[in-house]
Amino acid sequence: xxxxxxxxxxxxxxALGAALTAAxxxxxxxxxxxxxxxxxxxxxxAQVVKKVAASKGLNVELVPFSDYALVNEALERKDLDAxxxxxxxxxxxxxxxxxxxxxxxxxTFVQPIGLYSTKVKSVADLPKGxxxxxxxxxxxxxxxxxxxxxxxxxxxxEGKGLSPSLLDIAENPKNIQFSELDAAxxxxxxxxxxxxxxNTDHALNGGLDIREDTIAVEKREGNxxxxxxxxxxxxxxxxxxxxxxxSYQSPEVAKFLEERFKGAIIPAW
Length: 269
Fold this sequence. Notes:
By secondary structure, the chain is an alpha/beta fold. The chain has two domains: 32-111 and 223-267, D-Maltodextrin-Binding Protein, domain 2, CATH 3.40.190.10; 114-217, 3-Layer(aba) Sandwich (D-Maltodextrin-Binding Protein, domain 2). It is built from ten helices and 14 strands. The chain has helices spanning 3-23, 26-29, 41-55, 68-76, 88-98, 138-150, 186-189, 200-205, 239-248, 251-261; strands at residues 33-38, 60-65, 82-87, 102-107, 109-110, 114-116, 131-135, 155-156, 169-171, 177-181, 195-198, 214-217, 227-232, 266-267. The strands form four sheets. It has a five-stranded mixed beta sheet, sandwiched between helices. Strands 10-7-11-6-12 form a five-stranded mixed beta sheet. α3 crosses α9 and α3 packs antiparallel against α10. The longest helix is centred in the N-terminal third of the chain and has 21 residues, at 3-23.
């Protein structure tokens, strides 16, 4: 076989390979995607999503975090392709504070926040001057105050919506003393407090049970704190990210949430 003939055959082979690649389904051509999640319960869920995504031809690399504040920063720096850990009030606060170009892509689940206590069995049993811990970030702190207002422990000024602060407390009949702490520290601090409003993921990581250890729980119907997959602005329609969202919003994940968390974490799609 002449050199010229071999070149023709090689060229034909490369052309055929390119044509076959172009003809493959989009899922088969997808590359890996790197997704930031919170360690613990949320990572457990994401592992199920990862398996579903693999069946769709998408390899997902999960990057676990223990600090909420680092996840959007990593996405903004392009260390991640997407993240799945936050709700809209939290993202809005982060955008206002840091100017991130990050947008929601698709809902994942909602974790009703709870008021936990190891010292009393009901809200009515909280003593005058009770020490209550709340998250120190603006969105989850506001969420905690709204839960306390829902239970009649405090009254908030009108018009503060989802993001009230301690300065927006209009009435505090029990003279509650507030301790603002990092959300992840609240389960460890609970024994030193009369109660604490704790995000469900941190409660689960701390060995707490939303059914047994709460004295109040946020309403589930119409809950504005549904979590979602987020991506950088302009990447919303990347096939890899869309496939990840589809994998999250799957029967397999819904079944896992029901069987593993029994109402502590529920589908939001």
